[in-house]
Amino acid sequence: MTFADYFQTNTMINQANEIERFFEALGLRIKLWRVNTRWHGYKAYELQVLPGNTIFPERVEKLIEYYFSVSQMKQEDRFIVTVEHFSRDGHDVTGICRRCGCTQSDACYDELTGSCWWVQEDLCSACATKEELQQVRLEFSKKNKGE
């Protein structure tokens, strides 16, 4: 193995580890590993959803789709992805919460507050922090006062 091959392999391992930590912070435990194939012209990775998540299982696929513009479900808990298509900011998929994966037609529901609503284009009220909700309320009151 040349130094360039070693460096490239080590960089991809670090990138995969970083992506795993990113999803864990969202409440979704995953494991990424390289498979010996190319997919859409890129090196393919298998993404396995591990047990013990706080994300609803039916929303996992939408969440994976949001952060990887290119993904394909292989089995219920396994996907084929490319790390080159991963974006922390998500992709131009509208109406999917970037934190929980809920949609306009499959909203989060809470007995106290009812169905969630959009705080931002890609963030539902159930996932928003107190600060994010306060910012929306402030912007709404400014609009109503004509400021």
What does this structure look like?
- There is one protein chain.
- By secondary structure, the chain is α+β, with helices and mostly antiparallel strands.
- Helices cover 35% and strands 24% of the residues.
- The protein is built from three helices and eight strands; from the N terminus they run αββαββββββα.
- The strands form three sheets. It has a four-stranded antiparallel sheet with strand order 1-2-4-3, covered by helices on one side. Strands 5-6 form a two-stranded antiparallel sheet. Strands 7-8 form a two-stranded antiparallel ribbon.
- Strand 3 and strand 4 form a beta hairpin.
- The mean pLDDT is 81.
List the helices and strands and how they pair.
Blueprint: H1 3-26, E1 30-39, E2 42-49, H2 57-67, E3 71-75, E4 78-81, E5 109-110, E6 114-115, E7 118-120, E8 123-124, H3 130-145
Antiparallel strand pairs: 1-2, 2-4, 3-4, 5-6, 7-8
